[in-house]
Amino acid sequence: MRNPKYYLKEILKEVLPKYCKGKVVDVGAGHAKYGWLIAPLCDSYTTVDNMSSDYQFKETEFRPDVVSDVSHMPFKNNEFDTAICTEVLEHVEDPFRLFLEISRILKPDGYAIISSGWAAAYHKEPKDYWRFSPDAYKVLCKRSNLEFIEARRKGGLLILLLYFVNRNIELNIKGHTIFKKLWSKISKVLGFFIEKLDQFIKTEDTLGHLIVARKNN
């Protein structure tokens, strides 16, 4: 099975050319794994992270341009044309505060591109607090002077089911090299067919969502 980040990357490939422009800030950028998609589309690209996650930084020399609490960033009001925040929202204690901060630093008519997990497994980076439906995103936008534009799903029901099966099998065969190699081959074959079938099943179930919102004047 593909890493769940693959499905987010594929959505970003479609969404970024449409909405990413001008002066861009990557909020909670980690090691800027999507920077290669973002940078060619904008005039400037600034990364921000508080560097609190060992998962993000222990094996890389990358450091964000700005080290800051993402809910209290040292930028002027109306400074950026686009704010991107991928897989961060579930890890902050106050998601309303983060949305307000993103809205504050965006110029009027600027775009926010935000993603988070919905049915993702518990993952501490460094903490894991929340899950968000499209309805929750609409409330967050409404309270932050943002107009909700669209939401996209990161895979459907079959991909979601395979994700949980794959994750639990991998957890239980740790240290068993032969079983790991065998399951790796099986999951790749399953993943190929499940991805083909997944697009034909009508469902709201998904690994997570990416939403686009625009700041009101």
From TrEMBL:
Tree of life domain: Bacteria
Name of the protein in its database record: Methyltransferase type 11 domain-containing protein
Organism field: Candidatus Nealsonbacteria bacterium RIFCSPLOWO2_01_FULL_41_9
Single GO molecular function: S-adenosylmethionine-dependent methyltransferase activity
Gene3D superfamilies cross-referenced by the UniProt entry: Vaccinia Virus protein VP39
Pfam assignment, any one: Methyltransf_11
Residue span, Methyltransferase type domain: 25-114
Transmembrane segments: none
